[in-house]
Design goal:
With about 140 residues, the chain is mostly helical. It contains seven helices and two strands, in the order H-H-H-H-E-E-H-H-H. Helix 2 runs antiparallel to helix 6.
């Protein structure tokens, strides 16, 4: 049985389709700063975007086009997905980055350091700065 080229590890197939993260990043280049920051956060975090149920709800994809359907996702993600507290908080903050929303800041309490850093970098991109360093000093 042949595997779908999009799930074959890089290097195993020369004709592999571009990764969804690459396609989303390319799509986001023409979007507003909030959507670019939100897509960058999803791609950087990786785990949430790797979930098929999240992709099915968030991403519209065919051979010609790929994009994030933020309104559909926002309307349904809490009902349609089983999320832990960290995933829910991360997605809530990503949505607020894509389309400004009021979000309770207590959501950051459950993010964990890795996701908090990603969200902070997304907020820095949203503010027009892409070079802020977020992390621990060595």
């Amino acid at each position: 049985m042949e595997q779908d080229a999009s799930v074959v590890p890089t290097g195993q197939r020369e004709t592999a389709t571009p990764l969804i993260s690459d396609r989303l990043t390319k799509w986001a280049q023409d979007r507003d700063i909030g959507e670019r920051a939100a897509v960058a956060a999803l791609v950087e975090e990786g785990d949430v975007l790797a979930r098929g149920d999240v992709r099915d709800l968030l991403i519209v994809e065919n051979e010609a086009v790929v994009f994030c359907d933020w309104p559909r996702f926002e309307a349904r993600y809490r009902c349609a997905l089983v999320l832990d507290e960290g995933e829910d908080a991360f997605l809530t903050l990503v949505l607020a980055t894509a389309f400004p929303r009021l979000v309770p800041l207590w959501k950051v309490e459950v993010l964990g350091e890795r996701r908090l850093g990603i969200v902070l970098r997304a907020l820095a991109r949203l503010a027009g700065g892409g070079t802020i360093f977020v992390g621990s000093r060595s």
